[in-house]
Design brief:
Elements lengths: L1 E6 L7 E10 L2 E4 L14 E4 L6 E6 L7 E4 L4 H10 L2 E7 L2 E6 L3 H4 L15 E3 L1
Antiparallel strand pairs: 1-2, 2-3, 3-4, 4-5, 6-8, 6-9, 7-8
């Protein structure tokens, strides 16, 4: 695995570091959940400079939804099990904060911006 910085423009940041699994040559697959670089998703295929690991371009969509960030109380293992039982990939970002993403289906592509935000989630979503 290598770290590649995905570009995006923000008042305070200019990129987000993600883990990329090299697939050969100058291509790789994003292997964690991007949060700030919202143009990129889990499992997207990208090109990067193999000498500097600088991002070049997105080559193919990985078929996953944009990362949604949630606050939670309790144990991460229980929260992770809940989301995984619903078909989501789960990543812990900080104590009490996790990200989720799932493979898009034909039904979800139209509503990609409205991922199931857990009907009975006691705490609000902190980013949309």
């Amino acid at each position: 695995m290598i770290k590649v910085t995905l570009p995006f423009e923000d008042k305070y940041l200019s990129g987000e570091n993600v883990w990329v699994k090299p697939l050969g040559g100058d291509t790789g697959e994003i292997n964690n959940l991007p949060v700030f670089a919202t143009k990129y998703r889990y499992k997207d295929i990208i090109r990067f400079d193999p000498n500097t690991w600088d991002f070049i371009e997105k080559v193919a969509d990985g078929g996953f939804t944009r990362t949604k960030v949630h606050e939670y109380t309790g144990k991460f293992s229980e929260e992770k099990a809940y989301w995984e039982s619903k078909g989501y990939v789960v990543e812990s970002f900080a104590p009490g904060v996790l990200g989720v993403s799932r493979r898009r289906s034909k039904k979800l592509v139209r509503g990609d911006d409205k991922i199931d935000t857990r009907q009975h989630c006691p705490l609000p979503i902190i980013s949309e």
